[in-house]
Amino acid sequence: MPSPAGAALRVSNLRKTYKDVVAVDGLNLEIRHAECFGLLGPNGAGKTTTLEICEGLTKPDSGDVELLGLHWRTDAAELRQRLGIQLQETQLSEKLTVYETVRLFRSFFRNGPDAAEVIALVQLEEKSQARVGNLSGGQKQRLALACALVGDPDLIFLDEPTTGLDPQARRQLWELIDRFREAGRTLVLTTHYMDEAERLCDRVAIMDHGKVIALGTPRGLVESIGIEHLIEFNAGGAGDHLDAAPLSRLEGVHSVHTEDGGIQMQVTELHRAVPALLTELARQRVPLTELRTHSASLEDVFVALTGRHLRDE
Amino acid sequence: MSDLTAILNGREREATAQAPRPRGIADNPLVQLTLVRFYEFFREPEAVFWVFVFPLLMAAGLGIAFRNRPADVLPVVAETPELAAVLRPEKRLNVRQMSPAEAAEALRIGKAVLAIEPGPQGTVTFRFDDTNPDGRAAHLLADSAIQRGAGRTDPVATTDSVVREPGSRYIDFLVPGLLGMNLMGSGIWGMGFAIVDARRKKLMKRLVATPMPRTYYLLSFVLSRLLMLVLEVGALLGFAALIFGVPLRGSAGSLTALCVLTSLSFSALGLLIASRARTIEAASGLMNVVMMPMWIASGVFFSSDRFPAVLQPFIKALPLTAAIDAFRANMLQGAGLTRVGPQIGILAFWLVFCFVVALKLFRWR
């Protein structure tokens, strides 16, 4: 068993440039044993490049990566045995069955469960003899996960494991990942779904332009921006007559932004701010056409830090 | 029970000590990779068709079209009953009697190759197309029959001895050519498409991320090629020998060795073509550029000697020319390996050259 002392993954001063694009720009990370760590960020933030450098698939321009106390330069063969990897966009051979695919991957690893066991683990027993080409998107992702787990890895990398899946398939995959987390495996995953990171990860690093711009527990990060709730409302055509200045003076309101004709208010005390808002709108005779509130999320952390939405890219 | 099952049951991973399961030959990665090649190939009906069925259809079609028929009986027309009667004893002519107008029509549309009409004062006129070999043959036969009918005696007695030797027919020439063409196609396509497809689908990148030995990956293609070779060559040569009686005069051992060498050379060429291409389109363009000149120049369907002498050194250096020349020498003349030494040298050169360059260039992702 690997010693839990030290970090499972340590990345220092990592840099990688493609032609004139800086993909990873002096990245530092430390991921502990038995934690589920999320790398978040918009497309092009450098998540996948970082992961592929850690997986030994891409050589960094400079910087150092240490995994399980080992290095790619000197211990590549050992590392390959101990990592479980799922890449973005891998298409497994469509002509093979689920069993044949897992069996093939199993043959590469020294240790690990039987192919049938892994297939059961990702709940594909019924599809064991089905051709990969006939699987649904969610089933293909679970098969990819099976191929990542078949060597009984100490450290698992998942690159956007739920991208393109329907909500039900996502939830199934989350439950699977939960079980690994509970069993004390170290997981590193990338995602651009903030709800996924909040749901799965012990800690997250938010990346933008090849750098980590925030690091911590999902809850800690949300708290760090000092906003607990958001109120969004729309006054329809009457919104033009709205005087926004009194709104920011209401009790429990942190700040007010106008956005696409709607108003967004960041508030700390929802139970005081909402009645006060309704009173103020009634006073100004502005009718509401829409009113929504939600608790601040990692998405809001990203917006607060960069001024951009994740999906804008 | 493994760790992962423990996870499934919600237990700590340290809880179960793991005894390594004994691993058999089927757990060897090379065996698994080679097996996968077979599954992928035999589950692709098109590939099976092009590799196994197409060459047989081709051999059958061309064999039937160019079969050596018993000497044809030539159709001729006589314009009088007397002339017809004189010609009838000649069994190599099929004589019909027609009016001059009908005879001209039959000649024009090819129903007869020769018209025989009476001339003035007991002379005879032959009408035929002198560029048509059948017309010329019919003319000689008819002339000789008429002269003999009129009382000519031949001063020299002759007898005919008929020779129809297998080995000198078109089908005998063709089968070694098809064998070479087939090995080229399956070697280049078999390696090329599978590798480029795996690269395009990022499957290769995924495999490289496992502890899979990279040499095993390439070796699995070579191994599956060689195993497939047995079926491929067996089907074509078995068919040719049984149906058309194509001779196999060389030793089976040396023919096998030539097939293996040829297949390896073309696999190496396929590997080289596939070493960098990222798309199927790029790869198939390259494959066509490489294979087209050989289809034409290497003597699959007609002898490569028909090309001008200045081109001969280049044509002889092509791997397909070397392979086909060696197969013909082996199958038709019973030549041993030493007599096809130059061809073996050329094939071996292509094998080593392509393989070394391909490994240098190979893009693993």
Describe the structure.
The complex is a heterodimer of chains A (313) and B (365). With 313 residues, chain A is of the alpha/beta class. Chain A has 2 domains: 7-217, Rossmann fold (3-Layer(aba) Sandwich); 227-295, YebC, transcriptional regulation domain (Alpha-Beta Plaits). Chain A has helices at residues 47-54, 72-82, 98-107, 115-121, 137-149, 167-182, 194-200, 218-224, 245-248, 270-284, 298-306, and strands at residues 7-18, 21-32, 36-40, 62-67, 83-86, 155-159, 186-191, 203-208, 211-216, 229-234, 253-259, 262-267, 290-295. In chain A, the strands form 3 sheets. Chain A has a 6-stranded mixed β-sheet with strand order 5-6-7-3-8-9, sandwiched between helices. In chain A, strands 11-12-10-13 form a 4-stranded antiparallel β-sheet, covered by helices on one side. In chain A, strands 2-1-4 form a 3-stranded antiparallel β-sheet, covered by helices on one side. Chain A is elongated and about 75 Å long. Chain B has 365 residues and is mostly helical. Chain B has 2 domains: 30-65 and 167-361, no CATH class; 74-149, D-Maltodextrin-Binding Protein, domain 2 (3-Layer(aba) Sandwich), CATH 3.40.190.10. In chain B, 61% of the residues lie in helices and 5% in strands. Chain B has 14 helices and 4 strands. A 4-stranded mixed β-sheet of chain B has the order 2-1-3-4, sandwiched between helices. Chain B is elongated. The two termini of chain B are 35 Å apart. Chains A and B meet through helix 2, helix 3, helix 4 and helix 6 of A and helix 1, helix 2 and helix 8 of B.
